[in-house]
Design a protein that fits this description.
Layout lengths: L8 H6 E12 L38 H13 L3 E2 L2 E2 L1 E5 L9 E5 L5 E10 L2 E14 L3 E3 L11 E3 L6 E7 L6 H18 L11 E11 L9 E6 L2 H20 L7 E6 L4 E7 L9 E2 L6 E2 L2 H8 L6 H12 L3 H7 L3 H13 L3 H19 L10 H12 L5 H14 L3 H7 L9 H14 L1 H8 L5 H12 L6 H12 L1
Parallel strand pairs: 12-13
Antiparallel strand pairs: 1-10, 1-11, 2-6, 3-16, 4-5, 4-15, 6-7, 7-10, 8-9, 11-12, 13-14
Helix pairs in contact: 3-4, 6-7, 7-9, 8-9, 8-10, 9-10, 13-15, 13-16, 15-16
Length: 491
Amino acid sequence: MSTSLEPSVAAAAKYEPVIGLEVHVQLLTATKIFCSCSTRFGAPPNSNVCPVCLGMPGALPVLNRKVVEYAALAAMALNCRINETSIFARKNYFYPDLPKGYQISQYDKPLAEHGFIEVPSDGGRKRIGITRVHLEEDAGKSLHEGFSDAAEKTAIDLNRTGVPLIEIVSEPDIATPDEAYEYLTRLKEIILYTGVSDCNMEEGSLRCDANVSVRPRGQKEFGTKTEIKNVNSFRFIREALVYEIARQIEVVESGGKITQETRLYNANEGKTYGMRSKEQAHDYRYFPEPDLLPLVVDEKWKAEITKALPELPEARRQRMVKEYGITDYDAQVLTFSKSLADQFEAAAKAAKNPKRVANLVQSELMGRLKAKGVEIEQSPISMKGVAVSADLVESGTISGKMLKDLYDLCFERGKDFPQVYDEEGRPQQSTDTSALEKIIDEVLAANPKQLEQYRAGKKTMLGFFVGQVMKASKGQANPQLVNELLIKKLG
């Protein structure tokens, strides 16, 4: 949604935004970070709880080893340095869905630091720094719906308390809303490749807060920042940043001052609204968690975790371009997910021409999926099916027209290409010269006007005749052979 705030070109040119992002990612462990309760989403309220995550007196936390391994794996994929020793801390604040009255997090000694992500920017690439990746437990959830008087009643679901999170904090290196969008897209892609999270924003597995300020271009000091919280899609984060930057420029240009505050984004209105002043924010009174020892990830453990690090998306794209002769765009589409890239590579290695496989995905598969509103993971035609069809076209067994018709049947029937090809009797292009010559004679006899135009020098009519022959043969004639026979026939 476009905003009503649009500073003049001159005003916008005077200022530059400074953006930093804080991303919370839920780790895909079966149990919580400090107890054995399930992390399964959608369970009845307050059913996945125990004395530890309910904050009962005397209940002690026990660190989940898999949480550490997943967090370290994600940090490695983000080019971070894993600290050998990190410390858990108590972050003290009161909120109804925080039963202990504090959250176990990490403060001055996090698990990992000094990473980066590279994003496309102005035709090149830009490195966005990552300050830190630290571990923490999630809080519960306040439920306001389902009451006749929602303003008076709130329910608490503590199933999420103790769910393992990593917080990924970027450096204030992001200069535009588009860069923020690219950073989040790359971050999600990398995390998904590692397999440590499903990054499902609808279920709260990935959440993002954005810090933004503006300053006169060339000024080194940061302006006063605001924090935009609880935005539930990357597109809305970009929209919220566009609005907030314009709002701040308007305030400064009119002689006002930016208030350091937390703001919420209303996607229906395309505007941000003040929620609370940061001057009134909690003093979290961090101190080391007395019930947990320092976390030590030594070189031996780090080496074990490193073995699980997959080939990451950008490296995989570069290799696939070299190995299969595909374009950068092909590689971008085909590495959309790790499973898709795995399927493509398996198909490409089995196919006669990997480039043709990539072309068919782009030209024939993606268009049909988009028209149906279906993601590629739900495609009736598998990558193996695409490879089979590519080989049939490559060998001249079927024509491009036949392939299109067979793909249409696959989508109609919800079946893979090899199955539909068998059901249709394994059709083949006709290379029967005498049969094709007969069809050509019939086409020429039926189109005397076009034949006269061709003989009068309008050689483009050849394409018309090829099309008519293909139509008469129901797409089963070999186009190259038809072309050759027509040229010979027409003298």
